């Protein structure tokens, strides 16, 4: 220690001072940006999922109700036709769907899917016949209806407006 006190070079040195502790707040602007983007993305995803679940609620309900229908019921054609119309009314205004019957109704149903379901039309048309559907026909009707519900729903105004029939043609078909 004596040597250090007598050495003039060592006497010119100052004491070592430790730097101040680096604080975590405030964080750097880049981290604020990352936090903002992350929270915005999370919020957008939650809102999008919630809307998607709400939009598909009527579709899920229609599919569950279709599963509950008994193929031995003599009114299955009427029930399925009502189910399709009720599902459509869940997404579209009443005036667009409620008044459709017969060929206009079948044309509208087929316009909502890529491939027309002529067998669905044929089986639904049997609801006015005296003879009920056989269990095999009823099962086939349920299968076709399920595929229509899965493909066509959820309906949008744009999708419905792309119907190949104009309102005037629909009125003519109703007569």
Automatic annotation (TrEMBL):
Q: Where is the composition biased (Polar residues)?
A: 155-166
- Keywords associated with the record: Membrane, Transmembrane, Transmembrane helix
Q: Where are the transmembrane segments?
A: 30-49
Note the InterPro entries from the entry.
DUF4381
User: Positions of the region Disordered?
Assistant: 155-175
Query: Could you tell me which Pfam families the record lists for this protein?
Result: DUF4381
Instruction: Specify the protein name.
Output: DUF4381 domain-containing protein
């Amino acid at each position: 220690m004596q040597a250090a006190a007598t050495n003039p070079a060592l006497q010119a040195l100052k004491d070592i001072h430790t730097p101040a502790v680096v604080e975590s707040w405030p964080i750097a602007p880049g981290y604020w940006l990352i936090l903002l983007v992350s929270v915005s993305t999370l919020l957008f995803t939650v809102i999008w999922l919630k809307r998607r679940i709400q939009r598909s609620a009527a579709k899920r309900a229609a599919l569950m109700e279709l599963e509950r229908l008994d193929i031995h019921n003599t009114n299955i054609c009427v029930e399925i036709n009502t189910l399709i119309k009720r599902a459509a009314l869940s997404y579209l205004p009443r005036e667009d769907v409620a008044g459709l019957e017969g060929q206009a109704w079948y044309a509208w149903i087929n316009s909502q899917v890529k491939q027309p379901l002529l067998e669905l039309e044929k089986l639904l048309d049997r609801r006015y016949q005296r003879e009920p559907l056989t269990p095999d026909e009823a099962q086939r009707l349920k299968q076709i209806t399920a595929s229509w519900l899965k493909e066509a729903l959820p309906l949008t105004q744009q999708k419905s407006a792309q119907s190949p029939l104009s309102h005037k043609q629909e009125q003519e078909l109703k007569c």
